[in-house]
Design a protein that fits this description.
binds nicotinamide-adenine-dinucleotide; seven-stranded parallel β-sheet; Rossmann fold; 7 strands
């Protein structure tokens, strides 16, 4: 159902890799609500080609950019404004990668080059996106910028490894840039802290199935799906949330404020 919540809004969506990606679902929902956007991902990810189907289905163009490269981000913003015919109203940063997680390095045996890569790709890139947008004066007044995060930034989860530090930095960047961009252009900046979700990034974490099921039982409303997350992003991009900024918004079915649930007690009593 469309309420045209994003009619006349123009944006950039980073991170749609395949149809399981959270960004993929966001693109479909934004399209349904009348928003127009360009899709971007790292050149290497685009080789898979799946994103072209999404582009066709949403009438959007794909622009490659490694989000760690300010030069590529600059080109992305310039081309996006050309294609969309004006400044940008919304940005989704749905980017995360840790070589240490991918290569299953123990937390006591991290490769520091890779640690820096995790931070650059998963956190600093968010700052680079906003700094690029500010320098180009690419955002419209009352625009909305979102990044996706996970609660391991605040509480420990085994095997989330250096991504926990990356997410903590990401959330902190959202607060600091949110203050700056709010004052400069009335642009809001938030992170959405999403439930475990079955995507390429998600299932790359060891023991993911177990903590997906645990989180589901620890959440009175159950885990939030990628589609639920997409709905939340639409609301955050819409004019209905113009005064929400510098927040880490929990989107987790109640997980983050549950001490224990009856389902877990039942399971532990068996
Ligand atoms: N899946 C989960 O359980 C979960 C939970 C909470 C938050 N998140 C976050 O959601 C976001 C999206 O992840 P997802 O679960 O949809 O997985 P995904 O693997 O589909 O998406 C991650 C994306 O990051 C992109 N990427 C990696 N390096 C890049 C670079 N240098 N430049 C540009 N793009 C790059 C990948 O190509 C991919 O499209 C991530 O920030 C992730 O940490 C995921």
């Amino acid at each position: 159902m469309s309420n045209n919540l994003l009619a006349n809004k123009k944006g950039i969506i980073f991170g749609a890799l395949d149809e399981n990606s959270i960004a993929w679902k966001v693109a479909l929902k934004v399209h349904e609500q009348g928003g127009k956007f360009t899709l971007s991902n790292a050149p290497i990810a685009l080789r898979m080609g799946a994103i072209n189907t999404l582009a066709e289905n949403t009438g959007s163009q794909v622009i490659p950019a490694d989000a760690t490269s300010p030069e590529e981000l600059e080109q992305l913003f310039i081309k996006s404004m050309e294609i969309l015919g004006g400044k940008i109203d919304f940005v989704l940063h749905s980017i995360g990668m840790s070589p240490n997680v991918r290569k299953k390095k123990e937390y006591g045996d991290l490769n520091y080059e890779w640690f820096l890569k995790s931070l650059d790709i998963s956190a600093l890139s968010f700052h680079k996106v906003m700094q690029t947008a500010e320098k180009l004066d690419a955002m419209n007044e009352w625009g909305s910028i979102l990044a996706l995060t996970y609660i391991a930034s605040q509480r420990t989860f085994p095997d989330y490894s250096d991504m926990a530090q990356a997410k903590a930095a990401l959330e902190s960047i959202a607060r600091s840039y949110g203050q700056r961009y709010g004052r400069l252009k009335n642009v809001r900046v938030n992170t959405i802290s999403q439930s475990p979700t079955m995507t390429t990034a998600g299932i790359g974490i060891s023991g993911f199935d177990a903590f997906f099921n645990y989180a589901d039982k620890m959440s009175p409303l159950g885990n939030a799906s990628a589609e639920d997350c997409a709905n939340y992003c639409v609301v955050m991009f819409s004019d209905l949330t113009r005064k929400v900024t510098m927040q880490n918004l929990m989107h987790d079915g109640g997980f983050s404020t549950s001490g224990i649930t009856e389902e877990i007690i039942e399971q532990m009593s068996k």
